Amino acid sequence: MLKTLAVSSFILLQLLHAEEISPILTLPEMQEPKLGVDSMEKGDVAKGTLSEFVFEDSKVFPGTKRTIHLYLPANHDPEKETAIMVFQDGRVFVKADGPFRIPTVFDNLIAAGDMPPVIGIFIDPGQFTDAERQKASNKGKGNRSFEYDTLSADYATFLIDEILPLVAKDHKLTTDPEMRAICGISSGGICAWTVAWERPDMFRKVVSGIGSFTNIRGGDAYPGMIRKTENKPIRGFFQEGINDLDNEHGNWPLGNMSMQAALKYKGYDHKFVWGTGAHSGQHLGAIFPDAMRWLWRD
């Protein structure tokens, strides 16, 4: 009963701010949307390529290794300066039958002219090379929380000083921060925001799904920081579900509502899409093509 009242109160709040409510939130159905045609392979669309390699020479996060998948758009010219988009928890986003299927989405939207050709860099969280350290790390999850949830410039430095130069050895990457995007879900979602917040000179486009703007490692401080800091040139697309987590770290929907209010107060270029789901990538996966159209609209 209490949960029903909370959901009803949230919906009422959204209706009172009707200009912000997402068309995805259909009150009679109250269910997550499904993948659409832009997430399905099309026979007449040229396909990009996907490769993978292991990186284990990090100076920022020593003693870790990780798999990285690299997407190159169809007809890619390695000598042509190309936009980039980085993804945390990379393998989740490239899985062919997963909730996102980003290579297919990119193929379709690039072919349609709905977004520029983009090199996708899909990075898994670090796993410790020392077996005992890996076993003792947060139920075997490795260095993920430290890398993603920490409010510092470390992960941005890791990307800028280690990963991007590695990719740039074979491909000419844009240096324009307006043409550099970063995306993640959960802890990867707050990480995406942190990278742009710390280094807007290098990344200015953010996609955060079910972002952990809670007190895992102090992330609940962001709304207050946003309100009291001079605006940074960041464009952000956010997705959240009203049945997301509520635990010792905080309440995910409330954390995202505080982010939404702070960004609106400061006049940031942002968009929040609310659904009724829990801590899942299903909703963001379904709306990801439209998120890309919005993010890359100019």
CATH architecture group name: 3-Layer(aba) Sandwich
CATH superfamily: Alpha/Beta hydrolase fold, catalytic domain
What pattern of helices and strands is seen along the backbone?
HEEEHHEEHHHEHEHEEEHEH
Approximately what portion of the residues adopt beta-strand conformation? 15-25%
DSSP strand count: 11
Structural class: alpha/beta
**What is the CA-CA span between the terminal residues?**
45 Å
- Count up the domains: 1
CATH topology: Rossmann fold
Overall description:
With 298 residues, the protein is an alpha/beta fold. The protein has one domain: Alpha/Beta hydrolase fold, catalytic domain (Rossmann fold, 3-Layer(aba) Sandwich), CATH 3.40.50.1820. It contains 10 helices and 11 strands. Strands 1, 2, 3, 4, 5, 6, 7, 8 and 11 form a 9-stranded mixed sheet that branches. Strands 9-10 form a two-stranded antiparallel ribbon. Helix 3 (102-112) packs parallel to helix 10 (282-295) and helix 8 runs parallel beside helix 9. The longest helix is centred in the first third of the chain and has 15 residues, at 2-16. The relative contact order is 0.15.
Question: In a nutshell, what does this entry contain?
Answer:
The chain has 298 residues and is of the alpha/beta class. The chain is 36% helix and 20% strand. The chain starts with a helix and ends with a helix.
Features:
298 residues, alpha/beta, Rossmann fold, two-stranded antiparallel sheet, globular, disordered N terminus
Helices and strands in order:
Layout: H1 2-16, E1 49-55, E2 64-72, E3 83-88, H2 90-94, H3 102-112, E4 118-123, E5 127-128, H4 131-136, H5 144-149, H6 154-168, E6 180-185, H7 187-198, E7 205-209, H8 222-228, E8 235-241, E9 246-247, E10 250-251, H9 252-266, E11 269-275, H10 282-295
Parallel strand pairs: 3-4, 3-6, 6-7, 7-8, 8-11
Antiparallel strand pairs: 1-2, 2-4, 2-5, 9-10
